[in-house]
Design a protein that fits this description.
This protein has 589 residues and is an alpha+beta fold. It is 61% helix and 8% strand.
């Protein structure tokens, strides 16, 4: 019975569970259907809302585009209207111009017809005149043409000759001016500090007691010092100083270094003196080599034989007329390089030749002969190129100049040597020479002022215009030059310039201002002329020794030349005239 009841209970439980499950499933299905219906409803509502918004946006965009299109159409219509108005205006202007052109063409045609008629009349008159001239002259037109052509050819040949002469003179002046510009530019760009060399050296001492130690017992120290150095040691009453004297600058430098070291060391006796002198000699040799290398570096010269470098360094201890030989060589090297660069040739080659041009002075006390030829032999021996060798040999004209580098080095050497202050000349004698120049020029009749300029190498003389005419100033310049040459001694050349200036008063049409004055001087009329004046100018020398030249520069300001000739007035020769004369002077060393 129990199993049956259990089976029945199990069946009832299963049925009840199924019914509960069925109920719950139906309830869930119903909820899902309601939820899906609600979602579908919401989706339709959202779609309707989005549709309405898109329609609204589309309508607004269409409205905006329509407005933009209408505005653009209005603007284009306005631009077209403006263009139409401009075209209409241009058409009106063209019509007006066309009408004016037609009127001018008509006027031109009318005048052309009148000119044709007049031309025919003139041609008729000309034929009659030619026939009359042929009848009077007794020759045909062709014969007269041949005579005229012959005269024109002769006159043209004469004018061509004058023109050629003028061009040659102009070319010569231009070449002189260019050469002066090159030299002046080189001098301006080459600034050299220089102190004249002396034949003595002064060594300072800490006290006068040191003099006794230098002399030594019975003078043994001073005798040993002079023996080892070859220099005279002068001990006098100069306080705290002694003097070294020698013609050889190298020996003097060795002695100076040795004495300074002995004084500093304090141990002064013959053995110590010999030791110090040997060290000083080695130091001076090193200084010589360093000086040569520094000179090469300063001038940009490269790859030189060591012996030549040593010779260049030895120039540091050589002097000529008080001018240091190495400083002079450096200056010549710089000047040569600058002038070569201005002429467009090899600047480095010119610098090399300038640096080596005086190497003969480093050995000329050991070898006989001119230092230029000694330097030539040294340069050739140590492998310098022919251009450098020739420049070294020819810078004093001991050998014929064969290249432009010879001329450049010779010119640079002359400029460096003749520069005021480069070689020994006392200030007092220099100033006295300038004063003598001015005083000598003022002794001539008619001279009002005289100025010595350009370091005494040029003197400008002002003359009274009433005492001398234009032609007389040539002779005055020549006389002054000859008197300077006969009464004075000077290096180089002195240029004499005589200046005569006339200031004039002009009456009539317009105004005349003499160039350079900026005003009129009412006190002195110029020959009573009503025409124009000539501006004062500066004369230029012909550039050849002893040659005299004068220049009449300027231009006529007002007045008509033909009218003046018809009236019989003379042509004004100029308000100013300069005459220049260059003295033929002895060549500087």
């Amino acid at each position: 019975m129990l199993p049956v009841m259990l089976a029945a209970a199990f069946a009832v439980g299963i049925s009840a569970g199924f019914l509960v499950y069925r109920f719950l499933s139906d309830k869930k299905l119903k909820g899902a259907r309601e939820q899906s219906d609600q979602l579908l409803k919401d989706a339709f509502q959202e779609a309707d809302r989005r549709k309405r918004e898109m329609l609204t946006e589309a309508k607004e965009e269409i409205h905006r585009l329509r407005q933009d299109a209408e505005r653009e159409i209005k603007e284009r219509r306005a631009e077209l209207q403006r263009a139409e108005r401009r075209l209409e205006q241009k058409e009106e202007n063209l019509d007006s111009k066309m009408e004016t052109i037609l009127q001018r063409e008509e006027e031109f045609r009318r005048r052309q017809e009148e000119l044709s008629i007049r031309l025919e009349e003139v041609e008729s008159v000309r034929r009659k005149q030619m026939e009359r001239l042929e009848e009077i002259a007794g020759m045909s037109r062709e014969q007269a043409k041949d005579v005229l052509l012959k005269e024109v050819e002769e006159e043209a040949a004469h004018l061509i000759g004058l023109r050629l002469k003028e061009l040659e003179e102009k070319a010569r002046r231009e070449s002189e001016r260019k050469s002066r510009e090159i030299v002046v530019s080189a001098i301006q760009r080459c600034a050299v500090d220089h102190t004249s060399e002396m034949s003595v050296s002064v060594v300072s001492l800490p006290s006068d007691e040191m003099k006794g130690r230098i002399i030594g017992r019975e003078g043994r120290n001073i005798r040993a010092f002079e023996t080892f150095t070859g220099v005279d040691l002068i001990v006098d009453d100069t306080p705290e100083a002694v003097t070294l004297s020698s013609f050889d600058p190298v020996r003097r430098e060795v002695a100076r270094l040795s004495l300074e070291r002995l004084v500093l060391d304090g141990r002064i006796h013959p053995a110590r003196i010999e030791e110090i002198v040997e060290k000083a000699q080695k130091d001076v040799e090193e200084k010589i080599l360093e000086a040569g290398e520094e000179a090469m570096l300063e001038t940009g010269v490269k790859s030189m034989h060591p012996e030549l470098v040593k010779l260049v360094g030895q120039l540091r201890y050589r002097s000529s007329y008080g001018q240091n030989a190495l400083s002079h060589s450096l200056e010549v090297s710089h000047l040569s390089g600058i002038m070569a660069a201005e002429l467009g040739i090899d600047e480095h080659l010119a610098r090399r030749a300038g640096l080596l041009h005086d190497i003969g002075k480093a050995v000329d006390h050991q070898v006989e002969g001119p230092h230029a030829l000694i330097g030539r032999d040294m340069a050739k021996r140590f492998g310098e190129i022919p251009e450098v060798v020739n420049a070294v040999a020819a810078h004093h004209e001991d050998q014929e100049m064969t290249s432009v580098y010879d001329v450049i080095v010779s010119a640079a050497d002359a400029v460096s040597a003749s520069r005021p202050g480069a070689r020994r000349e006392s200030l007092e004698s220099y100033i006295k020479r300038l004063e003598t120049l001015e005083t000598l020029a003022k002794t001539f009749k008619g001279v009002t002022k005289a100025y010595a300029i350009q370091a005494g190498r040029e003197i400008r003389v002002m003359v009274a215009p009433n005492s001398l005419d234009d032609g007389a100033i040539h002779k005055l310049a020549y006389d002054i030059a000859r008197k300077i040459e006969s009464e004075m001694k000077y290096p180089g050349q002195i240029k004499v310039i005589v200046i005569r200036e006339v200031r004039a008063d002009r009456e009539g049409h317009g105004r005349a201002f003499p160039a350079g004055s900026g005003r009129h001087d009412k006190r002195e009329p110029y020959l009573g002329q009503q025409g124009g004046l000539c501006a004062a100018g500066r004369g230029e020398t012909a550039g050849q020794t002893g040659q005299l030249s004068a220049v009449y520069p300027g231009q006529r300001l007002n007045g008509d030349r033909e009218k003046r000739r018809e009236a019989g007035d003379p042509e004004p020769s100029g308000e100013g005239l300069h005459a220049a004369h260059r003295l033929p002077l002895p060549k500087g060393r």
